[in-house]
Structure formats: C-alpha cells, structure tokens
Amino acid sequence: MFRTVYTFILLIALQTATFAQTYRPVCGTSQEDLGIISQRLQQHLADIRNNPATLEERTIKYVPITFHLVAKSDGTGRITEKDVYDQLCALNEDYADMEIQFYIKKLNYINNTTVFQAHANAFGFMQFQRDLGSINIWVVEDATPAGDGLGTTLGYYTASFDWLVVRKDEINDDSSTLPHEIGHYFSLDHPFHGWDFDPYDPAVHGTPAPAMSPGGIATERQDGSNCATAGDFLCDTAPDYNLGFGWSNCNYTGGAKDPLGVTINPDEKLFMGYFLNCPREDYYFSEQQKQVMQQDLAGRLTLSSGNIRRVVLGTNINTTVINETPQLVSPIDSSVTSGYNAVTLVWNGVTGADSYLLQVSRLSNFSIITYQDLVYGTSKVVNDLQADKIHFWRVRPQNNYYACAPFSATEAFKTGVAVSVDQIASVDNWAVMPNPTDGQTDLFVRINANAAFEGRLMLLNATGQVVQQQAAQRFEAGEQNLQIPVANLQAGVYIVSLQTQEGRLNKRIVVTE
After folding, report:
1. Residues 6+ positions from 51 with CB-CB distance below 8 Å
2. What is the DSSP letter of 281?
C-alpha cells in the first residue's frame, strides 16, 4: 500500500514538473513582425522629437474592436460573452490615462474547427472575415502562430494582417495578455528586445551579458547610457534580457549583469515584459510607451480607406457610464414557476445599458453556471432547467463601451414540475396589444392557429400569482381575437399566458401609471 501511494505521489510530482517545464507562456509575435514594430517605433520616436505638439491633444479617442469569437464547427468551445466584457472593462482601465478607450464594434461568431484549433492553416478564411477600420482580435483555443514559438503562445500580433490572435483562456479581467498584444499593435517592443527568442542565460551567453544581443540589437545598460539605441529604444524602461521567461514570481533576484558588469534591475511590472506573476492591478505602461502608442494611433487615423492599418474612431456610440443596478421583477422571492423548461425571467432596464448578462445557477454563489446569455432586452425565456429545483439568477447591465457595472442583487425561484414550452405546434403566432398599456385599456389577444386546440388565457403578476383567468375554450384553426379586462391594474410587469395541453406560451406586458 505504501509503495502504491508513494508511486502515485511521485507520478504526480513528475507530471507537475513536466508541466512546469513545458508550459512556459510567451507572446508569439514573430521575429519578422518585431522587426517591423521596431521600425515603426523608431519612426514614432523621431516624429515625437520633431513635433512634440502632436501629443498635446488630450481628448478621449474611442477605438473600435471586432472580437471574432471562434468555436468548433459544431458551435462548442466558444468563449463566453462575460469574459469578453470583463476584458473590455479591464482594458479600458489599463489605457485610461493615455486617452485611449475601446468599444466593441462587433462580436463576430464563427464556427470553424480549423480556425479554433489550428488557425495558422486558415489565414485565407480569416482575411475574408476581417473588419477594416477596427482592431481585429481572434479568440481561439490554440494561438500557436505559424512556425511555432519559444513556449506556449498566449497571444500574438502579426503586422502582415494587422490583427491579434489570443487564447480564449487569456481573455478575462485577470490576464495581462491582451493589453500586451495591443501594445504591439500600437508599435511597442518588448523591453528585452533582442533577447525575445533567446532569453539570457549566463551559462550560455556568459557573464557579464554580451554587448550585442542574439537578435542583433545592442544590449541595454543599467546606467541608461545607450538606452536610445539599445533594447526597446525607450529610456524609461529598465534593461531586461527576457529575464521574466519562466520566472516564478514578481521579484527578480537572478543577478544578471549588463555588458559593463553592473547588476541590472528589470521592471517586473511592465505590461510589455514577461514577468507574468505580479498582481494584475500593478502592471502599467511607461510614459514613453504611452507616447509611442498615442503617436501610432494618430498615424492610423490618417491612413486611406482600405489600408489594413487604418482605424476609424467611433462616433455616436453609447459611452454612458452605468451607475444604476437593475431590479429583478419576476420570478422572485422563491416563487414557484408554472413550468421548468420555458421560464420567463424579467427585470427592469437601467439608463445607459444596451444589453444585460443573464446568469442562472443552482448555487447562490454562482460558482457553477447553469445558464448564461447576453440579452438585448429586459426579459428572457430560459429553457431546459431542472424541474422542482431552486435556482438563483442575476443580471449585469453593460454597453459596448462600459462593462464595469456590478451584477444585480440575486433572486431565487423554484421551478415547477409541469412541461412548459415557448412554442406550440398548433399556434403559428400570437400577439398581445397594446403593450405597454395604461391599465385602463383592455388587452387584445390575437392568435393565429394552424389547427384547433383546447386552452385558456391567464394573467399572472410578476411573482407568478394568477390575477385572473378565463374559462377553458376551444380555439379553432385560423385567426381569432380575444379580450382581457385590465381595468384598475396596478402599474408593473405582468405575464399573459396561453395554457394548452401542448404547453404554455407567455407574453410579458407592462402596465404604466
């Protein structure tokens, strides 16, 4: 028994060690693309020196992003919209102090296994999907570029197509990968430029470090005496010979020495570095890095139509900061729903919101999500919940610029045991008018049936209680109109429910004051 346990522990230890050796996350931007980035960067620095007034304009520029959300051909594996909007919130905080803000121009849903798992074999298809004028970000399962890379690629920028490719598990509010790759998009080098594909190792390169890096770029000195012609060509970023590659914490103590024999002190908290284990909120861009990115964006704005590097800033976009919290209307207070597989969830809208992230869970802490969807409206019919079970739900308001609002308070409901569907074979369509209503005008229900069926109309309040119901009747094939008296109803949200043996159809109505 002891031998078996020992062998198991040893196996786990070996697997962990192997994973630590093989999973060494990197940026996959190629050497060729880094060379193009360096040329742009040096041109931007020259432009800034020759015309510093170009940086004096301090107005917020809203930069569009097209997120290509890729899944397998059967639609599985795609990143959730929640992660994308969480990333947008973090990204705008990262770039806020340089007057660059991002908004989602489009969420492009693509089902293509090749792009999802091996996108380097599908550049032709991807070119066809690209949106000219916005930053194109491909969110895939495997971001490994053509020709592979130094380690596990988290994301990369390609100058040839002027787009970004990022692993789906790196798109969230905790990862620093996307701000890093957008830094490349805006012509920033790594602070360890020249050591990108051959991290400094004293056993290989000697001590002190050589005057010339393996990439043919001068090795930057600690005293900054060659900062304008070495490394990333910026003088407010410390020397770094790719020392973060594989480093396990946020405090470099390796003692690497520059060509003059001086111990260097890399900045572990630069977004553009490879120290990946610092607190997320501590990462930043240096002042010169910000200037280069602003200069790059200014140049992109002046490019002609059709140029792949062109950016067209957003106009008339919703930039409202959402300060309200939605109120959940129905079902609430642990009320029992009429069915379990077509449950209508209703909430009140808030100022500035264009969409709402809806979450349903069997657990009050939402650690396991039963259902999640991006809803453009204030109600949703949720199918296929478990019968006779307590569920919790909440919504988060957002728009395509502002995604930092909190979730609403949580409400609970219990699903019923009856089968309820949001489609009935005998009914082609139906409508309830007027909606909204002032509570003094009766509701009119129009039903178009393709076959006769038995059923009844009911009016439910927001908690699912029956306000009134009509007698069961036979509905003939064709069009028929019915009337529901609503005089003296209090203002609020109600559900008109058509109940049949085939299931139920629900329409949400609003009674105004």
Report:
1. none
2. G
